[in-house]
Amino acid sequence: MKCENCTKKECSNKQRNEDRQNTPADVLNSNDENEEKSEFHKLANAKIFLSDCLACDNCITSDEAVRVFQQNQKELFHVLNLNKKCDTSKHKVLAVSICPQSLPYFAAKFSLTVTEAAQRLCGFLKSLGVHYVFDTTIAADFSILESQKEFVQRYRHQNQEEHAIPMFASACPGWIQYAERVLSSLVTPHICTAKSPQQIMGSLVKGYFARQQNLSPDKIFHIIVAPCYDKKLEALREDFHTPLYNSQDVDCVLTSGEVFQIMEQSKVSLREIAEVAFDTLFDGVKEAELIRHDGRKSDGYLEHIFKYAAKELFDTEVKDVVYKALKNKDFQEVTLEKDGETVLRFAAAYGFRNIQNMVLKLKKGKCSYHFIEVLACPGGCLNGKGQAQTEDGKPDKALLRQMEDVYATVPVRLPETNRQVQKLYQEWLDGMDSMKVQESLHTKYSTEKPAANNLDIKW
After folding, report:
1. Rounded to the nearest 10 degrees, how much is the dihedral formed by the CA atoms of 271, 293, 251, 443?
2. Which residue ranges does the record assign to the Iron hydrogenase small subunit domain (predicted)?
3. How open is the CA angle 454-364-361, to the nearest 5 degrees?
């Protein structure tokens, strides 16, 4: 990260402006836009109604609103510009981690395969000055493995522990925000404690990878590219902050649509970009093949946990999971029968209409499910509002169908078969049942409703 095309004299002339750039601000306003000029300074801020994603009246504080608003493309270019200056003490290693559900968006937009889109997106980001580009699938491997272990433990102790069953999935930040801020202790004890793939990736990059590169975590600026805006709120959580280094595990979240905006502003098409393989967390190794998990529109928690639980609890091999649609296509169930008895009953509840119906059943003591995969977006993660929207904010159904088609072509791999994950359990976490596993891969949820200063905002 050497200083590019500047001299000591020029840096001195720029020092006053640089100091202004690094002055903390309580809120991003129109004056801030003039402090760091580049061809990207006119990028639009993401807009989405809170009622569209979280569907409640008490979800976000004024401080959170400001910090969410500040997570945009300007953050990326602010770091890129600092890396071009002579003061190396302010340089950052830029690492971008891309969610697998974002890649079909770029594939559909540019008529590419998912692998082509991934490698050209990697090439585009590196052409901007990003140092490392990772795939978050390895983090989803950890999250799924920890979730399925926890489910089996909860199932076995359901008669001793009041809140063991049902277990709710924990990967969707919109759902978690709603559960903590609105439902509180009614639901939070039922939520799986495994971190989401985003935040496990944060632990990997700021923990394992930083150590491998002999870097302090605060010297890495970690960006996640994700399909929805709720991921921005998740990155702000206090439990994903390292006080020793004053560093968040994830520094900034950009939606797929925001990255596409950067391409539009720079007049670049992915079809024109050379393909570059993803980096991995291991030195000298490139990501050879793009893979995904079982699950049509998400990371497939339901399918993986169902198959694992059937084998561990009832010694039953399940090859194909058969969904039964209930009230609508976003509310489906899966069951396992043994000796004429239903021993496992799982549900997929997508969208807040189905989530609220599920919670109502729990409140009345009529929830018969053992596990519920909860996603805030109807249609699942591919339909995240950061990528599957038209310009007027409506769902882009044609684009979503294309995304589903290309996503289905990506090969599936079981988390258990990932050798790198097994290696990381030993090298990074001191084994599969260590205290480090709990510290790095699990979290806790609030059981008290905070008094939020509600804002009628768009983000």
Report:
1. 170
2. 393-449
3. 75
How many Cβ atoms from other residues are within 10 Å of residue 104's Cβ? 32
% of the chain exceeding 70 in pLDDT: 80
For the chain, give every residue range classified as CATH 3.40.950.10: 139-195+293-441
What CATH number is given for 50-137+197-291 in this structure? 3.40.50.1780
pTM reported for the whole predicted model: 0.84
Handedness of CA 305, 171, 221, 440 (dihedral sign): negative
How much of the chain is in helix, strand and coil states, percent to nearest 5?
A: 45, 15, 40
Would you put residue 85 in left (φ > 0), alpha (ψ -120 to 50) or beta? beta
Single-letter code of the amino acid located at 180: E
| DSSP secondary structure letter of residue 278 | P
- Assigned token pair, 305: 């946990």
Q: Cα separations (Å) of 424 from 203, 256, 280?
A: 12, 29, 12
Q: Which residues contact 409 (CB under 8 A, 6 or more apart)?
A: 113, 114
Q: How far apart are CA 216 and CA 227, in angstroms?
A: 29
Task: Summarize pLDDT for 213-232 with one digit per residue, the tens.
Answer: 999 999 999 999 999 888 98
What is d(CA 182, CA 178) in angstroms, rounded to the nearest whole number? 6
pLDDT in tens, 61-79: 666 666 776 677 888 999 9
Q: Which H or E element spans position 224?
A: strand 220-226
| 169 DSSP 8-state letter | P
Q: And the tokens for 226?
A: 């994700």
Q: Is the dihedral of CA 338, 341, 342, 344 positive or negative?
A: negative
Dig out the tokens for 265 from the structure. 């502003």
Q: How many C-beta atoms lie closer than 10 Å to residue 405's C-beta?
A: 12
SS3 category, 374:
strand
Residue 89, both tokens? 């003490």
Q: What are phi and psi of 273, to 5 degrees?
A: -90, 140
CB 259 within 8 A of CB 270: no
Give the residue among 323, 309, 319 at the shortest CA–CA distance from 166: 309
Closest C-alpha among 294, 448, 323, 355 to residue 168: 355
- Residue 347 backbone dihedrals phi, psi, to 5 degrees: -135, 150
Exposure of 208 by Cβ count < 10 A (0-12 exposed, 13-18 middle, 19+ buried)?
middle
Distance CA 18, CA 228 (A): 32
Outline which parts of the chain fall under CATH 3.40.50.1780.
Answer: 50-137+197-291
Which phi and psi (to 5°) does residue 454 adopt?
A: -65, 140
SS (H, E, C) 58-79: CCCCHHHHHHHHCCCHHHHHHH
